[in-house]
From TrEMBL, chain A:
Acyl-CoA dehydrogenase/oxidase N-terminal domain residues: 14-127
Protein name: Alkylation response protein AidB-like acyl-CoA dehydrogenase
Required co-factors: FAD
SUPFAM superfamilies: Acyl-CoA dehydrogenase C-terminal domain-like (SSF47203), Acyl-CoA dehydrogenase NM domain-like (SSF56645)
Matching InterPro entries: Acyl-CoA_DH_CS (IPR006089), Acyl-CoA_Oxase/DH_mid-dom (IPR006091), Acyl-CoA_Oxase/DH_mid-dom_sf (IPR046373), AcylCo_DH-like_C (IPR036250), AcylCo_DH/oxidase_C (IPR009075), AcylCoA_DH/ox_N (IPR013786), AcylCoA_DH/ox_N_sf (IPR037069), AcylCoA_DH/oxidase_NM_dom_sf (IPR009100)
Pfam families found in the cross-reference section: Acyl-CoA_dh_1, Acyl-CoA_dh_M, Acyl-CoA_dh_N
GO terms under cellular component: plasma membrane
Natural source organism: Blastococcus xanthinilyticus
Ranges that cross the membrane: none
UniProt key word Transferase: no
Acyl-CoA oxidase/dehydrogenase middle domain ranges (all copies): 132-228
TrEMBL record, chain B:
Transmembrane portions of the chain: none
Protein's UniProt name: Acyl-CoA dehydrogenase
Species whose genome carries this gene: Blastococcus xanthinilyticus
Family: Belongs to the acyl-CoA dehydrogenase family.
Occurrences of domain Acyl-CoA dehydrogenase/oxidase C-terminal (ranges): 208-329
A single GO molecular function term of this UniProt record: acyl-CoA dehydrogenase activity
Coiled coil start-end: none
Gene3D superfamilies: Acyl-CoA dehydrogenase/oxidase, N-terminal domain, Butyryl-CoA Dehydrogenase, subunit A, domain 3
Entry keywords, A to Z: FAD, Flavoprotein, Oxidoreductase
PANTHER family xref list: ACYL-COA DEHYDROGENASE (PTHR43884), ACYL-COA DEHYDROGENASE FADE28 (PTHR43884:SF20)
Superkingdom classification of source: Bacteria
Domain (Acyl-CoA dehydrogenase/oxidase N-terminal) ranges: 4-93
Cofactors, names only: FAD
Statement: the UniProt record of this protein carries the keyword Oxidoreductase: yes
Length: 386, 357
């Protein structure tokens, strides 16, 4: 197979297993104290700033970042263990998720010293949250067609007009990294002329309108920019380098365990049911699902190890996300085939609740962060077909 | 890091390349010239220690040989000898046959065993009964067979039976590989009693061997299909330029990558002797599940020529459809996996998953 798709096996990390045990102990105590309850897809829906701050206090945010910005200089393998444990427990991690996963690393690569010093320690503390400003009402999979525009003012600031959509938790967040056109679209080079701006979401001229998803939850927003003046020093990276910078974020955005564990709490609940019934058909389904989880763990761990080697494996990340999100959606149908449970958000049966939560979130899994069709196009490029 | 294995792979490829592709028939049950060439190169004893008569080397070297031969659709019992019979006999304290004598592995649940002497370690036994689904029956000169322990004893017996003069029935898997039946009648054998856990570990070796073969064949089928999509033109351009075909090939690549990652992890677990049963179970289940997608899409992309014996694709797709059900199907191993993960109760399920790999 093409070498651009394959990565070396991940080495075992004793440090990761140590921090995993610490997180497990912490989560058991929090669950026992009732500070959170387990839900499906909590990295979208579980906003809890108090919980995020607790993670910050324990050193579990900004784990891989330099100490001079408050980070902990730990490995991507250790960070992997922490994020995986939080997801498996269905803990409320949405507030800080984007900032910790990709905005912080983006700032580390492209931010100015001032931007890093001001913002990164607050992310590490679990106090500063970010949104992704990529998709627009008329630009989904075709990201290069964005129209949100930033023009230089006489004072050297940026005047921003346009709108971003599907901006998860903008109503709880402090900053957005917003992809804007800083030069007119060039049909000869569609990827030129874009830049990333670091935008304080409290600036005048920004309106955040809720967009409710299928279960009625308010996570998505439309963020409208009307003559928003963004200070000139809030350009992130280089003017015109936006496409390249967005692409670099994607290895972080696409490869993590949240791309196959969004419905893990449903699998865990199903495991409880199987342990009660001992039903052989259910046991077989649990085994098949487990084998898929185990394979995805190995794939995702290989990416964490590659990140530790300083690589940005975009193509393997696209592949893991395709396989992973397919799995987290399949979980629902596989379980349905062997249990007689009517999904309901207000059922007394935790399996019925988990099924309901998973079902109503399921269409998003294979859309967010790049649709599976886009991802397969990237994999096809890795196979040398494009 | 992999330089030794690269050398081994290169040697196997050279030997394979100097052989005509082998078409199995009821009369030609295995590729004996290939086996002889591999044995002469010392490759049929790799991963088995020199003091036991093997060629030395690591498990990873043996796996590399098995993978290369599986991708080449080689009709020789190397996976059985290097990954199952050899290491299982060794672990049980039994003597290994000479590596140039093909030794296979089978499970004989219907065999009854009588001790000839009264040793409870390695000893002499007689075995009677029918052993079905024996890989390379009629080709292998001996079989390491896992059978129930003698009456009144717990566990199993691993016995080494000389079958060079025993007739095998004509039974073949979907790829034409011999999977015949042997009838043992007071067959004398060296044997060693195994605990239930030790016997489970032997079954896991068998499943892992097939998973390793599946992984290699899946990778090769993907590579052939990508290559074909680049060469075959329709509507004035290569098939691989059509988005519909790209989506199919990407889906295949996802399955293959998942299988490879999990099989590699199971081999490492075997090497470390940790969680060998659950890791092998997971690898076998995942590899078997990938066969449906990869074989179906490979044939779809190849079109009608891939559906004929004139094209090479069938050498591997028929093996994929066979191997996924051998050494325990996905149904069998998925139950083993789930039961094992639930052994500490449902709250122990996630911790168990993270321990397996």
């Amino acid at each position: 197979m093409s070498t651009s798709l394959t990565l070396a096996p991940a080495p075992r990390s004793e440090a990761a297993e140590r921090v995993r045990a610490e997180v497990r102990e912490f989560l058991a105590a929090e669950l026992a104290a009732g500070t959170f309850t387990t839900h499906v897809d909590t990295w979208l829906g579980g906003v809890d700033p108090a919980f995020s701050k607790k993670l910050g206090e324990r050193g579990w945010l900004g784990m891989t970042w330099p100490k001079k910005y408050g980070g902990h200089e730990r490995s991507a393998m250790e960070r992997y263990a922490v994020t995986e444990e939080l997801l498996a427990a269905g803990a409320p991690v949405a507030a800080h998720w984007i900032a910790d996963r990709q905005s912080g690393p983006n700032l580390l690569t492209y931010g100015t010293e001032k931007q890093r010093e001001e913002i990164l320690p607050r992310i590490v503390a679990g106090e500063c949250y970010f949104v992704i400003g990529m998709s627009e009402p008329d630009s989904g999979s075709d990201l290069a067609s964005i129209r949100t525009k930033a023009t230089r003012t006489a004072d050297g600031d940026w005047l921003v007009n346009g709108a971003k959509v599907w901006t998860s938790n903008a109503h709880h967040s402090h900053y957005g990294i917003v992809l804007v056109r800083t030069s007119p679209a060039d049909s000869a080079n569609r990827h030129a002329g874009m830049s990333q701006l670091l935008v304080d979401l409290s600036l005048p001229g920004i309106t955040i309108n809720p967009i409710r998803i299928l279960d009625g939850g308010h996570h998505f927003n439309e963020v409208v920019f009307e003559d928003v003046v963004v200070p000139g020093d809030m350009l992130l990276g280089e003017e015109g380098n936006g496409w390249h910078q967005v692409t670099a974020e994607l290895a972080f955005e696409r490869s993590g365990p949240e791309r196959f564990l969004s419905t893990y709490p449903l699998v865990a609940e199903f495991g409880r049911r199987v342990a009660q019934t001992g039903d052989p058909a259910q046991l077989a389904v649990l085994g098949r699902l487990s084998a898929r989880v185990l394979a995805l763990r190995q794939m995702s761990l290989r990416i964490a190890a590659a990140l530790d080697r300083g690589e940005l494996p975009n193509i393997p990340a696209a592949l893991v996300k395709d396989v992973g999100t397919t799995f987290e959606a399949d979980v629902i149908e596989e379980i349905r085939k062997v249990v007689d449970v009517t999904p309901s958000l207000d059922s007394a049966d935790p399996l019925a609740r988990a099924l309901a939560e998973a079902q109503l979130h399921q269409p998003g899994f294979t859309l967010r962060g790049g649709t599976n069709e886009i991802l397969r196009g990237i994999v096809a490029r890795g196979l040398g077909l494009r | 890091m992999a330089s030794d294995q690269d050398l081994v792979i290169e040697t196997v490829r050279d030997i394979l390349g100097s052989h005509e592709p082998f078409v199995l028939t009821a009369e030609r049950r295995w590729d004996e010239p290939l086996w002889t060439a591999l044995a002469e190169a010392g490759l049929t004893g790799v991963g088995l220690p020199e003091e036991a008569g093997g060629s030395g080397g690591e498990l990873a070297d043996a796996v590399a040989i098995v993978r290369t031969l599986a991708a080449g659709a080689a009709a020789v019992p190397v996976a059985e000898q290097l990954l199952v019979a050899g290491p299982a006999l060794l672990a049980a304290g039994l003597d290994l046959p000479a590596p140039e004598q093909p030794t296979t592995f089978a499970i004989g649940d219907a065999v009854t065993v009588h001790p000839v002497d009264n040793g409870d370690g390695p000893g002499r036994f007689t075995l009677s009964g029918t052993v079905t689904d024996v890989p390379w029956a009629g080709a292998a000169s001996s079989v390491a067979v896992l059978v129930p322990a003698p009456a009144g004893m717990e566990g199993s017996l691993l016995a080494l039976v000389d079958v060079s003069s025993l007739p095998a029935t004509d039974a073949f898997n979907l790829a034409g590989e011999p999977r015949g039946t042997l009838v043992l009648d007071q067959a004398a054998a060296a044997g060693a009693l195994l605990t239930v856990a030790q016997a489970d570990a032997v079954r896991a070796r068998y499943a892992l061997a097939r998973a390793v073969q599946l992984a290699a064949a899946l990778e090769q089928v993907l590579a052939w299909t990508v290559q074909y999509a680049g060469e075959r033109h329709q509507f004035g351009r290569p098939l691989g330029k059509f988005q519909a075909i790209q989506m199919e090939l990407a889906e295949m690549a996802g399955e293959v990558t998942a299988v490879t990652a999990l099989t590699d992890a199971a081999v490492q677990a075997q090497d470390r002797a940790e969680n060998v049963v659950l890791a092998a179970a997971a690898a076998k289940v995942r590899a078997g599940a990938a066969v449906e997608v990869v074989a179906r899409l490979a044939h779809q992309v190849h079109g009608a020529i891939g559906f004929t014996q004139e094209h090479k694709l069938h050498h591997l797709t028929r093996r994929l459809w066979s191997w996924r059900d051998e050494a325990g199907s996905e149904l069998v191993w998925s139950r083993v996996l789930a039961s094992g993960l639930l052994a500490d109760g449902p709250e122990g399920f996630w911790p168990a998953l993270t321990r397996v790999g």
